[in-house]
Each structure stands twice: as structure tokens, then as C-alpha cells.
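To: structure subgroup
Subject: Chain for Friday's discussion

All,

I'm putting the inputs and outputs inline so they're searchable in the archive.
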Amino acid sequence: MNFPKDTKTKWLPAAAALLLFLAVSIFYFAPQFRGEVLPQHDVLQYRGMNSDIEQTRTQTGEDPQWTGGMFGGMPAYLINVAYPAQLVKQSVGKVSKIMDIPASLLFFSMVSMWLMLVMFGVNPWVGIVPALAYGLSTYFLLSIGAGHITKMWAVAYAPLMMGGAWMTLRGNMWAGGAVTALAASLEIGANHPQITYYFLLAMGAFWLSEGIVALRERHLASFARRTAVLAAAGILAAGSNFSPLWYTLQHSKETTRGGSELADGSGQGTSGLDLEYATAWSYGRAESFNLLVPDFMGRDSATAFSSDGEVAAVLNDYGLRGAAGQLPAYWGQQPYTGGPTYLGAAALMLAALGLVLARGRNKWWLVAVSVAALLLSWGHNFMGLTRLAFEYLPGYDKFRTVTMILVIVQWAVPLLGALALMRLWRDEVPRRQLMRALGWAAGITGGLCLILALAGGSLFDFGRADSSAFMTEQFHHIFEANGMQEYIDRGADVEWGEAAGAAMAAERARMMSADAWRSFLFVVLAAGCVALYAFGRIKRGAMVALLGVVVVADLLPVDRRFLSDENFVPARRQQIVPSAADKEIMADKGEPGYRVFNLTVSPFNDATTSYFHRSVGGYHGAKLARYQDLIDLYLSNGDEQVLDMLNTRYLLVPGDDGSPQAVQRTSAFGAAWFVDSLLRADSPREEIELLGQVNLRTTAVTGADDAETGRTMSPEGCAAARITLTEYRPNYLKYTASTPEEAVAVFSEIYYDKGWRAFIDGEEAPYFRADYLLRAMRLPAGEHTVEWRFRAPGWGAAETVTGICSGIILAGALAALVAALRRRRQSREA
């Protein structure tokens, strides 16, 4: 088939871009294509969270919508629920499956950014450079390495959503609306609300900028129509994900994201995350320099000092050989970091050039949202602004790890660079003006690198004071442990600590200086490419190609410091197999439903126990708030009675050889039990405190609105009553009960009234909350079958809304595609 020459010309940059992005992705993740796998912490944890959900689907063919595998049990809305009516995700979203992760994450991030730039009117050849800068931003590779898969898909889809908004407000509003609805549907469906929220803030800044322009140029009617189309696209996108959004919104009020009822001390609780908790991961003000210089803060928390550096030499002199390898080079304020948010020195130089060359309407909203994002990423280091955002910005208080907002800067920097390159591509900038702009851009970025390289050691303390104090304390402990009081008396601990702290600061300063010189080099190389074009030494195509090489050469080696071929392992090493202790517990075929408390791991930050057992602990950022309260007050201390009420039959503890050992507990209350009295509390605080004051085996604590107080049955009746769990699935439990008189049974299952329904002999029956977070119900005298069933409430209606909105989006996208092809054909015929 012979295509017209103009068609070939139009499709050539698209084909080149896709092939280049594919080549970069395959090169970076070459071990993946050899059958090796990347161990990813969050993926490993997710497999534990998801274990009993997938097992139920396989065995029964139904989606449980609830997991019993961790934190005693919780809705699966933020883990894995099947939503068949998400037609956009189930159709267009499947395109992402043509390649496995992690390579697909990198590939589609670059493709999405490139498509957005084309929508913005950027030449497709030019768009390749900023797309590479976006996809290879170090934070994205760190996220892939950590297994933050939903975050990365949200990052991949976000540029498409922003491109659709640009088209809607500035170009063909109907085509833009269709693209926005489709991309926003995929973005929301990626199920990482925090990333989506941040990009919606960026979209809001763009909309506000366009509104100001419309007001100034007096075309408010057109702006209103375009706004209406954009709003309709957003409503349809939300509607196409109505089911997950609705249930997540409903569920979030009960989670730590909704706040604790105990948080403010009044029993009324808070509506969002605790401010201190939410800002635990805050960027240091000085730490922002690692956007330009990767090792400014000593790299990552896992990087230690070298064995042949100054720190090692000092510690070796003090008899601490090998100790340098245990000390972190990172000296920032974050509790832990996997690496810097390095954007690329070359990319930042091009962004600075964009600040000088780009027209005001295109750049100022980008500058504003980037500066705001940077300041908000400082969290508790700029608490005035952070507190304002928490109090007045709707939804902002639902998210933790405020440093994540830097994804906006990571997106805006390549976009600003693209705006600069487009002016050069169109030959719109006279040589003198270009060289002046280049001098400013290279002078600011390169000059900052030079200052850090030459004088940085005198501008920052590189954690010297903190390191000296820490090492002084360590030497003090060593001297005390070895009976060397005379060393303490003459201040050797302080002297040695200060010497070690000084060595640590000096080595960090050298790390920073080396990378500052490196960044200076890439600023010069990027500026040199532009200067060669300005003086007519190379054509615009060669300039873009060379800049692409410089950007990749800049970012790729830094990325590979944190994620390289060495991180991959043979697939067989990632197979999850039970330990001997796990097998011992799994062999227990007594009454089902018991739980396991694993003390060989950090129990409330690890979901691996849930591969094989119902776990008292787990790993999730939005666990039920009442369960978190229980952890804080009781479970973190291993309270025996609270473990008993959770039917904790086994502990996993380290054995003599270090391997897990199973220890059976005989005091667990069982899957359900009868109590002879109820004790009503007047507030949530009193309710949870009473758990540590009464015998929960015979008395159930209830809330002010949950049940009456006093005796429920005679001690003789309680002794004669029996209740046994005979069938267990995450979303279905069946008990046989026998009681000589009316009685109250407490079930060692988590109370959640938005989906759980109880039945006695097939008839629905009421139930109430007991013991702060368990279920309880009254049973009449006699022999009975009790069943509990979980189903998301209003499922049919929610899925109907989701399906209708999804269908409208797909129809609109198809109509927009047909219209575009028709216009292209008519243009060709004319």
C-alpha cells in the first residue's frame, strides 16, 4: 500500500517517538525481558493484602469485596474489588497490558507526556525531549522500584488529562472534552486519589489563568461554554468510576483518612489526618536543591559511607572498623527516603529558558503552581502554608506524605522546556535575544551548580551538629559498656564524636560537590546545544536530537543509582512459600476464623503474614480508624485480653535459629462467645479505655447508642450456651448456636454496618457494635443458625451509573475520532 508523502511525514515523528520510548524502556528494564523480576516492596505487600480475595474468587467465582486477611478484616475497596461497569478501564485501559510492568510504566509515562505536548501544539519532534525528561525523572524510577504501581499509572495518565483540558479551553472544545473525559476516567480508575488530586490543582490553576485572560479579552461567553464542557467531561469521568469512588468515599470516613474519634480528646474526633502524621515526610527547604544536584543530601537513607573514605578512616583509628558502612550518608529531615527528586540539570536549564522565552499566558500559571507545590512539599518546614492548605483546601487533609506534590514540578519543568524549544523550532527568537535568554537560563542554573561545587561546603553544615551528637552518644555507650569511665571523664566521647561528625560532614560535602560539578556539566552541554543552533552551526533537528541525548545521559545514570539490573532477581526467588511455622499453623483444622499475630516482622507495617493466615496486623495506608486506635492503645503492647477477643490463636516469634516459630495461645475467646452483661460507655474514649478494665470474656463494652446496659443472661445460661463457626469465607460466615435463654453473642469480627448483614435462621436480624470494634447480636433461646453476609450496599445502582457514564465517554471518544478522520479526509480532498 502506498501512502501519500504528506501522510508519511506526519506519521514519521510519531513512529520515531514510540520506537525511541520503547527502546529506552526495554534498555532500562532489560532483565524483565530475560524473564527476571523486580522485587518491589509494595507489590510484595499487595500480594499479601490480596491473597484471600483472589483465593475466594478462584474457589467460589464471587468477588468478596471484603478481606479478612489483615487488621482483623476490612473492606476491600482500596485493595481489590471488581467493578465490571468500568467500561473505559476495561477497554481502553487494557492497552497498557500490551507490555508488562515495570517497563510499561516507563513507556506509557513518556507516551502520555508526548501526546499531551502534541495537544499543546508542540511539534512532535520537539516533544520527544521533554517526554524523555518526564519519564526518566528520578522520583518515578524510585516509585517503580518501591512498587507504587497505582501511583505510577496515575502519573502516566495525568498528562493526557491535562492535554485534554488544554484542548477544551484553547482548541476544539468538543474533541478536548472527549479526550478529557477519556483520560480523566483512566486517571481516576488508576486509583491513586492523591496524584489525581494534585493534577486537578494544576488544572485549576490553568483554568483560573484562562479565566483571567477571558475577562481581560472579553470573551467570557466562550470561556463559560468551554468551562461547561470541561465540567461535563469531569462529571462523566467521575461517573464512569462512580462505584469505586462512591464506596471509597463511604469507606474513607471510617478509616484513618477520616480521622480518629479519639484524636482531639473530646470524643468528637477529627475530619482528616492528624497534621503531624500527614507531614511526617516533609521536604527540607535546603533539600529542594536536589532537584538540581542529586547527591546534595547524601543520596538516600540506605546509602552508607564508603569503606575507604574519611569517615571510615576516622572510625578505624578509634577501633570501629566497618562502622562507616552502618552510618547513613543522607542528612535530610525525612524519616526515610529512597532517593532524591532529581529532575535533571539539563531539563531545569531548558525550563529556565522557557521562563525567559515563553509567552506570559503559557508560563505564569505553570510557575505559580510549581512554586506552590514546592512550598507545600516542605510540609512542617513551612507550616504556615501547610496549615492553611489543611484547613481551607478541600480534601487536602486526606493525604499524607506531602512531598508527593512535587510530581507537579516534575511535570511542569519538562513542559516549560518544551515551550522554550517550540519558539526555537519556529525560529521566533532573534539570535541576540536568544543568547541573552540563554545567558540568564544557563547562568542561573549553572551558576547555582558552581556555587554549590565551589562554596557549598561553607554554606551548609551537612548534618555535622546532629552527627556529632549522635556519635558522641554512641561512644559514650561504648565506653560505659566496656568500663572505660576514664575516657568519659576526660571527654573522649565528645572529642571522638565531634571528630566523627566532622568527617561525616566533610564526606557529604564532597558527594555534593562532585554531583554539583556533574550538574554544571549537563547545564553547559544543554546550553551548548542551543548555542550551536543559535549560531547556525547545527539545524533545529540536530539541536533537538542532541538535547535528547543530553537529557537521557543526564537522568539515566542517576536513575540507575537506585534502580538497575542488579535489583532484578530470577523469578523463582519471588515465589512465596510458607515456612515450617506457617505450615504448622495451616495444619490446624479446628474451628476456622482464628488469627495469627506475627512478631517476626513489624506487624502493623507488613502484610506478608496474610499470604497464609488471617493476620492481626497488616499493611495499608487507610486501615479502619478504630482498629488503629486499638493498635495504639493495646495491640502495640501485645495486650493479652485484646488479642483474646480478636481470636488470636497463634503467635509467630523468632526461634533460636532465627526462623519463625509458631506458639499456640490457649486463651483466645474463639470465633464467637456469649456474655452475661453489657457495660455502656458514654464516649468513644471511655469505650476503648474500658477494654483494659473489664473481663471481656463475660462483659461486652458498648457505645452510648449501641445497646442497653446491665445483665443479659444468667451465669448458668451463659455457661450452657454454645456457638461455633462452621464455615468461613471473607464475605460469608456461618455459625451454629445453642442457648437455653435469650443471650448476647459477641463475634470476633470487625464491625462495619455498611455492607454486613446478619441472619438468624434465614431471617435478617439487627446487630450492634461491642468491644469498640466487634459485632454483637441478641439470639433467642434455642438452636439457631447465624449467618453473616457482606455485599457493598446499593451495588446495582452504583454499577448502573458507572456503566452509563462509561458508555457515554466511549461513544464520545469514538465520535471525536470519526470527526477528526473526516476532517482530515476533507482537508486532503480539498
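Points worth raising on Friday:
The radius of gyration is 30 Å.
Confidence is low (pLDDT under 50) at residues 265-269.

D.
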